[in-house]
Design a protein that fits this description.
alpha+beta; 54% strand; 236 residues
Length: 236
């Protein structure tokens, strides 16, 4: 009986220490992303594909948007090029995309998006639970460990997913996020995120891929979106 008690105590202590180590790693990953919060892409290239339920392409749209910082401290969003099924539609899309955005407006918009699927945002940490999935793999030559997460707000699960964090340095490398609190017509919304260096010592999202499908009355639509983020710059 004494041996059993000692064994249980040992397991509890080791389990607690491992959980604490995982939280430390996760918190460090959050710091990496938060330290790059003032950095945003200067160039965003987006491909949007509509496919049928078998994955066959029905249409494809391409958007290339430049984001530049003006001398007045505001960001100018400019559509460079847009096409749909090979046809140039730049003029038609420009009115909806071209705009000027202040730093505070961009910050507010990002805060709203964070709560809809950013596991590494400081704002989502109070409602985020994590779990060691006990899986390892190498990504771009970097050993990583896999962590599961669920974000809950007011007793409602908002999103869940998994993330790969580098063993050395605790940098976010990849994340897959499934939106749980979604519009009733949306049957599934899953986003894959790739992270990397956006400047010296600065880490952030470099690739975003989303798959979603939904509809009503038996008419389903399947969308695939891929965004390449580059030429990052900082507000400061």
């Amino acid at each position: 009986m004494f041996f059993l008690r000692v064994l249980v105590l040992y397991v509890c202590v080791i389990g607690s220490a491992w959980a604490s180590d995982l939280q430390i790693r996760w918190d460090a990953a959050v710091v990496w992303i938060e330290n790059g919060r003032d950095w945003g892409p200067g160039l965003v290239e987006t491909h949007v594909r509509e496919v049928d339920k078998h994955g066959e392409q029905l249409s494809i749209e391409f958007l290339q948007v430049m984001r530049k910082k003006g001398a007045d401290g505001r960001a100018q969003m400019t559509l460079v090029r847009a096409s749909r099924d090979g046809e140039d539609v730049t003029a038609a899309r420009r009115e909806k995309i071209d705009r000027i955005q202040t730093r505070s407006e961009e910050k507010a918009a990002r805060a709203d998006k964070d709560k809809m699927g950013n596991p590494f945002a400081a704002v989502t940490q109070p409602g985020l639970s994590i779990e060691d999935l006990k899986q390892n793999k190498t990504i771009e030559g970097i050993p990583c460990l896999r962590v599961g997460f669920v974000y809950t707000e007011k007793n409602k699960k908002i999103f869940k997913g998994t993330a790969w964090i580098s063993v050395d340095g605790n940098k976010p490398m990849r994340a897959t996020v499934e939106l749980l609190d979604r519009p009733w017509m949306a049957k599934s919304v899953v986003t894959d995120l790739e992270y990397g260096a956006v400047n010296k010592g600065v880490w952030g999202v470099t690739v975003m891929k989303m798959k979603a499908h939904g509809g009503m009355m038996g008419m389903m639509r399947y969308m695939e979106t891929a965004m390449q983020l580059s030429e990052h710059w900082s507000w400061d």
